[in-house]
Amino acid sequence: MAKRKGLLKYFVLQSGGRDTKHVFTGKQPRGAALKAATRGFTDLKLRERGTKRLHIFVGSRKKTSAPANKPSWMPSMIWESNVKKKGIEHLKKKK
Q1: What angle is formed at CA 24 by the lines to CA 58 and CA 28, rounded to 5 degrees?
Q2: Nearest-angstrom CA–CA distance, 74 and 95
Q3: Rg of the chain over CA atoms, in angstroms?
């Protein structure tokens, strides 16, 4: 049997206690949160699909110059994101 390399998980961004249309993927919640922060979201509540977990992060981004060994397609200025995990909430089952 072939070994499965890390499966991607899907995380839905929540706003006001409801799911939005924004879905981010990653092996870990932090990877999805970094993607969301890069796109400009700061108050991050990511619901992991298939579970009852809500991962809560605070994110920020800043404009920095690209590294010297950047590929030719990369612009000279890029967004650098940073996130800090605040905790996990367990969602209750709807009746």
Answers
A1: 70
A2: 49
A3: 16
Q: Give residues with Cβ within 8 angstroms of 39, minimum separation 6.
A: 22
DSSP string, 13-80: EEETTEEEEEEEEESSHHHHHHHHHHTT--EEEEEETTSSEEEEEEEEEEEEEPPTT--TTS-SEEEE
The CA distance from 83 to 44, in Å, is: 9
For residue 66 the two structure tokens come to: 């690209």
State how beta strands 53-65 and 18-26 pair. unpaired
Q: pLDDT (tens digit, 9 = 90+) per residue, 5-54?
A: 678 999 999 999 899 999 999 999 999 999 999 999 999 999 999 999 99
**In the chain, domain spans:** 9-66+73-90
User: Quick check: helix, strand or coil at residue 16?
Assistant: coil
Total-model pTM: 0.85
